[in-house]
From TrEMBL:
UniProt xrefs under InterPro entries: Rossmann-like_a/b/a_fold (IPR014729), Universal_stress_UspA (IPR006015), UspA (IPR006016)
Positions of the UspA domain: 4-138, 148-281
Source species: Microbispora rosea
Protein name listed in UniProt: Nucleotide-binding universal stress protein, UspA family
Name of one Pfam family that matches: Usp
């Protein structure tokens, strides 16, 4: 049996949306589900030793896990489910769990308090460090759209994202939209340099076709639609997110904020996409 899909949950609407998405993905891929709730006593100044009336954070975690299991069992009754409460710093715990997971699924934000610590900014941190794909789901996800979109560029870091996207498209039995953003080279110090727009466009189209050649051979059953978009990659991918069920992006691990380790494109997509986003880091990323 493949490894588990691990879902960080805190009982918030965003976490519940993540539970639904993960339950469906587990059913499609034949994976077990593991719900994890992290208890961070020090963040609230609450001692971890027993107190009168019991530990409120552990009690909250237990309720969140029970609610998550109920949602998943109602949605996908045949999926194997386990739950786990772990004490520690949420981002570190979830990043460590990536070593045993096929993917991690998180809500995009909580509602403050415990939710704000476990999900919210932590989803960005986990996506920037985890060794497995990390799927971030916004509140209100409905699961009505089956197409998958993936960002394509000419970097080696794009290849793990393509592999994941093809697998998801196969599991969804849907079309894969391969989105490549391009623009004319800019030379501020030599504005007299000009380019043939059509030649540049054709060069970018060749890049896309070359990147897709190998996964197309490995997944011949997946229909692929190539899309070249003139402009910034974040704008092109956010536009694509409005019509698909999942957007997949790679991460070069060269973000400006060292603690997050996300590139500018994956960070921008996480903040603005209108569908669930899967961030797939390259094994060579720092």
């Amino acid at each position: 049996m493949p490894g588990p899909i691990i879902v960080g949950t805190d009982g918030s609407p965003a976490a519940t949306a993540a539970v639904r998405w993960a339950a469906d993905d587990a059913a499609r891929r034949g994976c077990p589900l593991r719900f994890v709730s992290v208890v961070d006593h020090w963040a609230y100044g609450i001692p971890k030793f027993p107190v009168s009336g019991g530990d409120p954070l552990t009690a909250h975690a237990e309720r969140a896990l029970s609610a998550a299991e109920a949602v998943a069992r109602e949605r996908q009754p045949d999926v194997k489910i386990s739950t786990e409460i772990i004490e520690g710093i949420p981002s570190r715990v979830l990043r460590d769990k990536a070593k045993e997971a096929v993917e991690i699924v998180l809500g995009s934000r909580g509602l403050g308090g415990f939710a704000g610590i476990v999900l919210g900014s932590v989803s960005t941190n986990v996506a920037g460090h985890a060794s497995c794909p990390v799927v971030v789901v916004r509140p209100g996800w409905s699961g009505e759209r089956g197409e998958i979109a993936v960002g394509v560029d000419d970097s080696p870091e794009c290849e793990p994202a393509l592999a994941y996207a093809f697998k998801q498209a196969r599991a969804h039995a849907g079309t894969l939209r391969a989105v490549h953003a391009w623009h004319l080279p800019a030379h501020p110090l030599a504005p007299e340099i000009t380019y043939d727009v059509e030649e540049v466009r054709e060069a970018h189209q060749r890049v896309t076709q070359e990147k897709l050649a190998d996964p197309r051979k490995r997944y011949p059953e997946v229909p692929v639609r190539e899309e070249l978009a003139y402009g910034h990659p974040v704008d092109a991918l956010v536009q694509a997110s409005r019509a698909v069920g999942l957007l997949v992006v790679g991460s070069h691990g060269r973000g400006a904020v060292g603690s997050a380790m996300l590139g500018s494109v994956s960070r921008g997509v996480l903040h603005h996409a209108e569908c669930p986003v899967a961030v797939v880091r390259s094994p060579s990323a720092p």
